[in-house]
Amino acid sequence: MEENKNMTAVEMTAEEKAQFEAFKREQERKQNMQERKDNREAYSQLVDEQIETAIPELQSLSEQIATVKRTVFGNFKEVLRMKEEVMHMSRKGGQFSHTFTNSTSTMRLTLGANTIDSYRDTAEDGIAMVKEYITSLAKDDETQLLVDTILRLLSKDQQGNLKASRVLQLKQMAEQTGNERFIEGVQIIMEAYQPTTTKQYIRAEVKDADTGAWRAIPLSVTDAE
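RE: above sequence
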């Protein structure tokens, strides 16, 4: 009661009241702006802290993966050499992927290398020989359609290279025809093959004991859960 007696009522004109309300709104606006600014700064600081924590950990993980990858390929170097001797299969023969399964068929490992098909200039001589022979087969509309289909196997990709898989198809066709010119042309193309290796890869799998299905071991941040 005494406190209420000590309070003094302030009379304001309509204009003064409007000015006071405008002042309060401006103060609230500035306060809200400051709060939003403080929140943005806190967010930015939190992002910095988490990035500075995550990046070194991911760098360490990347180095560990690279080390394990080098170790696995190094350990299998002798295995690949023996495979070449025993089974006469090697990268020189065009094999860029090797899959190995343990004796109990519970673990499987695939070592390979991504490649880009490319050829030496001598491939053009072989292509010319093949085209010369193939086009000579066109006698009517029916054979022309067959010729066009075969010639499409010699079409090049955006990098100007033939697809190795198509050359293998041509090889099969050449052997079926028995034509020496055709066979020699394809052989020249194959001898000019100089694939470019990009990156080596490893795929590891284990067999699910319940379902018997092969289950891939996630080896990337994207695949791991």
